[in-house]
Fold each of these.
Amino acid sequence: MLNYLREAPGYTCTSKILLRICKADTILLYAKNESDEEFILRGFDTRDNKKPDKDLKAEDLTERNLPDVLRERMDKSLFFSSSSPAYASALNDFSLGSKHLWCMGGAVHIKTGGIRYYVILGYKKRPATRGLQSTAYFYWLKCESLLRDILPSIHSRHIESATAWNIHIQSIRPVHPITWEDTSRAPLVNARRQIISYAMTKVDIGELLRRAVQMSSEPVYTLPAIQNEIEKECKRLHMNIASMISQHSELSERAFWRDLDDGPFINIEANALTKEQAFTFCALPMTLLKFITYECLYNALSYFEAKISVRVNFELWSGDESVVEKLWITLTVANDMHPEIKGQVSPTTHIGTSACETAAAAVGGLFIAGKNSDSGLWVAQAKLPAFKVPNELRMQIYDLLK
């Protein structure tokens, strides 16, 4: 179990363990490098998997939204505990509809590496009795020694992958614009890309990615839940496009898109999972998987004739040896080519392909795209690593994961 926590791609399972042991409802994990002026939020979690109370922005991911007295304790690496709800109110933003009663915080005393950590635990169901505060403090001391071993390992791997990806996304503003005025493309491609651009005004992928880079709390999902997440994004994009088509009939005609009321042209495919697979939990870079899904769909929607297929498979790990059991999450997006654009500019020339390659490589995965010589379909495929939660750990925190 300790090997998994050290090798995991993010802090999620570690956070769940702390919530369980310290009997807390919410956890915030802050970190500060020697060059940082303030502590930065690296991960947060809740006992009941609630979403944030609002859309978190950059200013919410620093220590600035915390009470001054708590910030002073953080700066001096001192323990903090207060039974006042006023000091715990900052945690409410990270748990929808929650009103925390009290909180406590403690530093993780790591002497090497030039990085400092501070953990804040919030309680919303059990009042701050002296007995509970004493018990929570006792178990925090036990957890702190464990965190000294785990946190540096996770952080070093996260920084390695995040640096590569951050360099790329900072070079394109936004992540990259969906252009529709390229004279080298067929007119229907430009018309389609214009519709897609309008549809994507409702989805801020750039903000999601920047948050994923700044934070490293990779979520934990069951395998069916991973498939469901991708299916939801496909349906969401389909509905947004349908809405734009109804508002821009002229563009729809130029795009050669049929009436979407006939049914979705994005076909979701999924292999049946075994009982064991259905109860398998794994941590993976879900934000990047969604980003790559969108990029592949932008391309497929621009060039397809009749149907687009999207499939998520799970394969045995075939990469480097690891003390932690891994899986490959394989996303495949395939589409036929419209007769109007066959022989025109290759879909691989756009910047989205480069973005997908960079995203996949940043987390130890790979991305390829090209025409399948047998089927004649254009196929884009991403393979991202996922870290399987070991059974021993899964049984201890199952109710916090599901």
Amino acid sequence: MATVNLTNTATDTMVFPARDYVGPVGVITRKFSVAEALAQKGSAIAASDVFNLIPLPHGSIFLGGSAFVETVSTSGSLDATLDIGWSGAADFIVDGVSVFSSGFCAIGTNGHIGPFITGGVRFDSGSADYIDVKIATLSGTLSDGVVRVSVVLADVGAGNTANTSNV
């Protein structure tokens, strides 16, 4: 098992940008490309590999998410499924989606897929985390396919540099 960071280190950060108001909410969308993951890892993709996709800043609340298989894998006769979530909840958004079926993915085992979940999930454990794509099962060699992952996050952390003088 390997963990590979696929975030864009030039633009993705672990803090929300400064705002003129409290509580910015945003949608972040990234694509998980099997070909890119393969290139970044530098060796064959294996079951239990974890790919960091979207940073979850300390002090953020996860409000919802979804995943959509954009490009179906043509890797041949094999079985491959993905889980999408974060450390401690690897299949929170999606549980066991096949990379051989196009369209929106079924909800995860916790049933918390967009647009909003009651109460949200707060990331304030003292360290940031990532939305991850985990290779749940794999038999054969996976070489292609693209899954678009979107999450809705709210910044409620102490790191929020919002101007609160008008609140």
Amino acid sequence: MASVEACASIECANDSHRPDMDRLETAVDNGKLAAADPGLLESSEARLSCLQAEVEIASAMVRFVLDLNCFPLSLACLRLLRFSPVLLHVVSLSVHHLTQEEPMQNAVVDEEGEPVDAATRYTLSDGSEFNSTVPGEKLACWQKRSKRLTDALEDGEKYGAFGELIEKGKAYLETLDDDLQELEKEEKERLDAEEDAKNKKKGKKKKGKKKK
């Protein structure tokens, strides 16, 4: 199959390889219907899963970096992160794709449509978003981001994805999980403070009733 040969030559997949990946997926589906050679089908499915994992890892990393820094990454920034030429090409293409088609952040406005200062709504590549002014939303978003990258890395390791991509993905995941722990700590402190405030309010009400 031509699609198998095309995908076999891909060193590390990115969004530009999706047409080849789509053709391979179609070929695999057709091969199953036609009872093609089981060995060829198995190896083709494994290759497709590997490529899909590489695209997902790169996309998860790019979205993570973009959101944390709140500006599109330039090639110079990526070089500072010490990406190899191959990985630099993969991630830079994902940066271009995300910054061209998906707004990274949008202004948050109040009920009257006026901008809210120091507030940001972040939009992820899967369409989910969080409003930094809503308690708990940022934590939930970071949890989803961590799970996405974790799942993609597991698939990547299972199907033999590009080694350096796996390495960089794990490094990003460590940083992401460190931030996640901080957010969990902040959320716990916020909830504890709310609980304390409620208890104090209840205590004041009880004292007021006793005086009567």
